[in-house]
Amino acid sequence: MLENLSERLQGIFSGLRGKGRLTEDDINQAMREIRMALLEADVNFKVVKTFIANTKERCLDAEVLESLTPAQNVIKIVLDELTELLGRTDSKLVLGSRIPNVIMLVGLQGSGKTTAAAKLAYRLLQENHQPLLVACDVYRPAAADQLETLGDEIGVRVYRGEGKDPVKIATEGIQDAIDSLRDVVIIDTAGRLHVDEEMMAEAENIKRAVKPDQILMVVDAMTGQDVVNVAAAFAERVDFDGVIMSKMDGDARGGGALSIKQVTGKPIKFISSGEKPDSLEEFHPDRMAKRILG
Ligand code: GDP
């Protein structure tokens, strides 16, 4: 993911390095090229606009242009602005003191929610927590089966409940966690293929009933431009605290992943890249920016 963008940016930078001194025209040209590279990687156009405006203003500073290593300075500025775009500081998952702590996952169907729920449980298990997974997708029995299989694989208890009322299952799941001495509950909710009223209302109802300590939205990094619209819709209706960006191992353009913090104001907390239980990493904006710039 993002390899093409990375290659493009490296090409632009090596062009700048080859020039020695840089003129205002060189900077303008480089900014045009960076702008194109970001747009072609599917980064949201408003995000690109702000990014380029900020970067350009800093690069055109006389001190930058007249320094002995102007290209190096330009690269440093781009790196810094990219880190800013990605959220600047790490946003770790902090569990509250309430036991059990409740984490609710929301997102579209197919975004990778169930997989992420299991990965998060696995991660918590490694950190000496005793998680419980709750299957609240009452529309697709396969989703609960999938969660159960994943739970078995990693040795984490899964509560499925009975009936078709996700609010009831979520509430019972929390009681089950209390009874079975689990300290973190991860609620996997139902998604739809597109944002719809019923899904939002259901997520709101579960939220109201269980008062989660945090809500994480699972976002498929391969969705492209539409990612930000979906996330904005969830932010408005359900509100959430952070994002798990799934499928970062895919070969799509990935710009949606780069846009989400700026568009929704919500930080990326984890990136998920693969189907193995241990493929959920904490997200570090600075490391990601460095990786993109190569
Ligand atoms: P849900 O409908 O949101 O619960 O999505 P699932 O967890 O069922 O995931 C949908 C599909 O994406 C499944 O085939 C998963 O195996 C796959 N998937 C989930 N996360 C990742 C990931 O990080 N990388 C890859 N390559 N595939 C993933």
TrEMBL record:
Where would you find this protein in the cell? Cytoplasm
Location of the SRP54-type proteins GTP-binding domain: 267-280
Q: What class of enzyme is it?
A: hydrolase
This protein's record includes keyword Nucleus: no
Name the keywords, alphabetized: Coiled coil, Cytoplasm, GTP-binding, Hydrolase, Nucleotide-binding, Ribonucleoprotein, RNA-binding, Signal recognition particle
Which EC numbers characterise this protein's activity in its record? 3.6.5.4
Q: Which residues bind GTP?
A: 107-114, 188-192, 246-249
Chief subcellular site? cytoplasm
Q: What is known of its domains?
A: Composed of three domains: the N-terminal N domain, which is responsible for interactions with the ribosome, the central G domain, which binds GTP, and the C-terminal M domain, which binds the RNA and the signal sequence of the RNC.
Specify the protein name: Signal recognition particle protein
Please name the taxonomic classification of the source: Bacteria, Bacillati, Actinomycetota, Coriobacteriia, Eggerthellales
